Structures
1.
Amino acid sequence: FPGLADVSISQDIPVEGEITVPVGSHSPDDDYSTLDEPVKDTIMRDLKAVGKKFVHVMYPRKSSALLRDWDLWGPLVLCVSLALMLQGGSADSKDDGGPQFAEVFVIIWFGAVVITLNSKLLGGTISFFQSLCVLGYCVMPLTVAMLVCRLVLLAGAGTVSFIIRLIVVGAMFAWSTLASTAFLADSQPPNRKALVVYPIFLFYFVISWMILTFTPQ
Amino acid sequence: QGGGSAVIDMENMDDTSGSSFEDMGEMHQRMKEEEEEEAEGEAGAGEEEDGEFLGMKGLRGQLGRQVADQMWQVGKRQASRAFSLYANIDILRPYFDVEPVQVRARLLESMIPVKMINFPQKIAGELYGPLMLVFTLVAILLHGMKTSDTIIREGTLMGTAIGTCFGYWLGVSSFMYFLAYLCNAQITMVQMLSLLGYGLFGHCITLFVTYNIHFHSLFYIFWLVVGGLSTLRMVAVLVSRTVGHTQRLILCGTLAALHMLFLLYLHFAYHKVVEGILDTLEGPNMPPFQRVARDIPVVSNAVLNTTAKTIALTL
């Protein structure tokens, strides 16, 4: 076998190269192709994605669409609308409008970050932003509850309205917690689900409490 | 010999090339800025001019510059690696390695004082339970503040609650750890955090009950019994890990005082507002304000009365 005798590599040619797995190598092509499309298409595509996620939250099924393509538009819109609606609910509202908005904003995002860190430390397989995305989208039932509460408070602020508000907020709180649990608890080891659910329960409880005790000026 | 060689002959380096480490950092930055400016402007700028720009002379200067450049890159890589090592949350992962059954067992145990104080008791260095208890205490405090109608500054209510609870947990733990270090007690910082955190379970129960049922005597009973039990447990565990009577006394006295006083503070800071409102709503009795001025006409007297009443109501 004369041809096989010379299979060795020459000594003065260094063997070098790169061992990288080109995972996101298709994204430059995507950028080029989506850069040329009209702005309306981009906006409609993003809006459709956000709308699809809202539907997933309203009917929580075990689908992975919410987790796979995470985005933070929906949580931002929900958080801002909730903070705006919770404004002006104190005795001296003339100088307390600012801190309330910032307070709600900080509570929601800080709470979501803490829950995410907690679930990661407990051995979760979900990524940071995916968890933020799920927790933010599951604030939607509570935003709906806030809207309903404001409408009920327009009619009057008696005991009946308090009972109605209590029922509505309680139902939406349970819905939020169940929806986020359906998405997040699957990523945990099975015997530790309770450890992850409890902080989520506390988080939505605090938000529900803020909504329930809101009394407009 | 290009820039990729690992062995560099240092004896040929020119001392006057000015390639000290700090200068290299600056020059690296300037080079990057100049590259960006050139990239924005012309298509192909002459990179051979860089040497003359920075005042480097000749081949020796170039070599020295490359050496220092490499050192800068290596240093930057090491610094970023060190940062990712210490800012990694995986450091905290072993403290969150618990099962729900364990958490429940530890919660119940935190109310049962141990009897054996001559043998060092085991403390689990776990942070999940204490962290959740602190957050629960924050939620209960918020509930208490709402029911006592301190809605005036809603923005800072949340901040006050979080600051109080976390400040107590972290601050008193650090202080007790420092005292334990002085008194030669065998306890680590994580164990102290864990011990104090689980001791807040009694506080949570007491406040949860007494914020909803407003009886002073009920609160005092709960304070003594529930608060006392959890304090006794913490004190017993600390005593079992300390040697010497004076040291035991110092440690346990401080911890008991701080823990019980914190519960008293949490109750009374947010409870007296409710008392004030209940008192003014009970009957047509005057709010406790002294009217010092005399010879005031009837009109301004009535104005004073109504103002005092509304102030007491809004408090």
Note: Chain A has nine helices and no strands.
2.
Amino acid sequence: MIFNVRTCGIQTSLLWKLKGKLSFWPSTCGLREIFTFNCALGKPQEKWKHWISVVGLEVHAQIKTNSKLFSGSANKFASPANSLVSLFDCAIPGTLPVLNKHSIEAAILTALALNCNVNLISEFDRKHYFYADMPAGYQITQQRIPLAVDGHLDFAVFSPAVHKVPYKKQSKIKQLQLEQDSGKSLHEESSFGSLIDLNRAGVGLMELVFEPDLKDGEEAVACVSELVRILEFLGTCDCKMEEGSLRVDANVSVHKAGDNFGTRTEIKNLNSLRALSRSIDYEISRQIAVLENGGKIINETRGYDPQLKTTLSMRDKEEKQDYRYMPEPNLLPLNLLELKLHPSDFRARIPVLPEQQRTVLMNKYQLSLETTIQLVNGGNIGYFEDVMGALPDLPVKKVCSLLLTDMLGLLHKDERTIHQCPVHPRRFAEVVELVKNKTITHAASQNLLSILYRGDKRKPKQVVEEEGWAMINDSKKLEAICQQILSSNPKAVASFRAGKTKVFKSLSAHLNKECNNKYDMGEATQTLRRLLQERVE
Amino acid sequence: MLQQLKNGGCSVQELYVQCLNRVQMIKSLNAYITVTNKISQIQLEESAQRYLKGIPRPIEGIPIAVKDNFCTKNIKTTCASRMLENFIPTYNATVVQRLLDSGAILMGKTNMDEFGMGSGTTESIFGPTRNIWGSHVIQKLNTNFKESFSSPPDDFFIAGGSSGGSAVAVASGSCTVALGSDTGGSVRNPASYCGVVGFKPSYGSLSRYGLIPLVNSMDVPGILARTVGDCRSAFDIIKGWDPKDSTTLQRPLNKSKLKRTSAKLSKLCVGIPKEFHCPGLSSEVSDAWRDVMDLLENCGIRVVQVSLPHTSYSIACYSVLNPCEVASNMARYDGLRYGYRATGKNLNSTESLYAATRSQALNQIVRGRILAGNYFLLKENYDKYFVQALKLRRLIYEDYVKLWSTGVDLLLTPVTLSDAPLFSEFNQKDSRAQSADQDYCTQPANMAGIPALSLPVRMSKRNLPLSIQLMAPHFDDETLLDVAELVEKELNFPQPTFKET
């Protein structure tokens, strides 16, 4: 059953109304703006530096429950249109909401993980607006007394392309509220009407309102990524942004140092981290450009077009919305103690969260923040711990470099994650131990990992023996090799004497080849340099 | 009646045919919107079978009528509005389902004011319901009264509302029990004018699931019957927790005080709130009220004068809270999924479709309240109106709580200020003024959520019923029914009887 909204003429106006829910944009809107700003957006100009940007996020996370927030309909993505719609979901007169206990539990768990104060009594409100995919004409939400307030999320900002060094950041959480999701409107340019799918209508959402304490797209992405990790750890949301189970709105404003916050705009329904980052950075630049050119920022809702990589105004003729909030009369106040949902009972159910994992790693292994970020945020910590636990006293730096550089490199090439790694942690540990005992060189360990990754079933030690990859600890032999290289490259030695120290690189290359991964390359290079210096003098 | 069915004095078919005849006889009163012949036949067969097999359910074969704002599966549920003129629900309201499960036979769906907004059953797209008293029907058919006052030929006495259809259906004997809904007096008011018992139970004692809402925080399904006993039988079947309505009480109701205090009436105390001696109260109602006070005293009950100081604010408070919830509840009627949808060339946007649909399919009173409600809920007005009204509601509620704590067990008040007015008189006033008159005595019980019952006392000079109201503390419905039954026995109100044709 598909609801055909209207058979004629309605399409354009609905498009305008649709705000961020569209995956495409009418080709004519916002073109002028794009021309105006794109030229200015190439590189941030020097004079823009005194602008301060402020970003606040609102995240809608669908609660991972079998049924919807107030009805018994199933909550499943990609089901046939309107196949998961109860009488309540399509607002049939006389139906009433009945709160789903599992949704409350998930929200309490999430609230505690995000350091919020859980209100033992919270209340539901109706938020009114007319919308084809909002069947009752209002959304049941928690505006006045939400389930939880005053939390914060600690995360690390680290994108090597932007900052060499990672830094820590915190975003405060104003409130966490339970509310209903809306349905979906579907529009096709060729079709003669609009179609409505109410499968999503009434699905439970946790809306997280963050304070405006971020500064750009990078921080926003870091914040949301950390949130995603936490929700996935808790299992309270599956966080599939591409399916819309996690959606982000960003409030953006800019001001000069010492001034009050500027007028903000809201970018709606961002459904990928890339869109989040790009839209915010674009919007910051746009606002600065507008202000630098003597313009004014209007408090408005904007959408992000991933093709054009710009934000576009979604203003329509409509005046400012007044949601006419009213207490929901069909639900009693949500009294957690009466429902025997003591927040204190939930604390024990919270797993070790990423921030805690990073801190533990730093303290336990004296790792850098950067490394802990790579281990925890990349989801590599499980494998890492398995390796470290497999054999005693493994050199942690070696484990990290082989894991984070070599092993991840191999996996990445095949578009695999660490969970699909064919090398057993135990074998990985054995490889590291071979390096630790100076049985093989670092270079040989890389080769060893590579052949294990390709499916070699032998034990690392056996491979080393059978392939003759064992390290040779014989400085006499090493000296002989170096002397031989120097002798067969008289031109290079002469150049070096003349001051062209760069030639050492080419000599090193010869050395690498001659050593064939069987000598400690640190020692080999030192020997070569020493002998070269002796010749020069 | 149930006794007769059980001992074989009358078969379910005979009873049904009698009631169906009655439905035909009162057709001109316009009590029913839909008469459910076909569905009744199926229910009837099952009932007859069950009597044959000796496994009758609690009210097997008892004919009922249901106000047209309770959802009934596969039967039109119109709310007397163009908006839902062709709306056929796929489910039964809990209270309807419980009655049917207990063996009731549905006679039909009864007339009402559009979406319950009115107090005369005069604002229905199907036309007004006429009171059976003072009508040509009763003149022709009643065997009880030799002389009877009759309305002028071009006028009629109103049935009261908004559950006027249900009241007339019961008064005429076309069914034993009818469901109504009571938000500001909509069950008690027509019961009072039509000379039947109208019971509004405690908020939370009956499920609202399937009742198309007017004001969710005050709506209560109500029961209309000729006797308190019939009210009680129906109440016992439909009361109790419903997982589909979060506002229903999970524990059982309080036990009757009469049973708690070893049935000694002298231990009871009935309060007479002075605020109910209001301007406009007719001397006839006043006299009836006083007579019932005397009657209670003669029974040994202590009668004391009490005060409920915030009573007169109830209507003002209601005139804010009602439109707010109405505006919200009516938002779903947009013509997209069900109900009326406007058509026309100019409807080229969602907004214009919504606007045309709603202005064509909702009457002026409904639209007026939607407008007012949305105004009160605007951000800048919310504290000025809605919050103030909530505070006032709290004060009214506390009046009652304080009173009960002083040892008063029940209250005795008028229901309506007079006997039934003529349509021509009633219609002179606008909807708000009507509500101010009609709901003055009944509205506070809805504010406080307490049980209240309208009981017919005697006939007025115009040969129209006069009634009084009993109210009890929240969840003391059993005490209320016990005392009402007692008073009923003493009063011996003359129910009309009919010549069968």
Note: Chain A has three domains: 51-186+194-339, 379-467, 475-534.
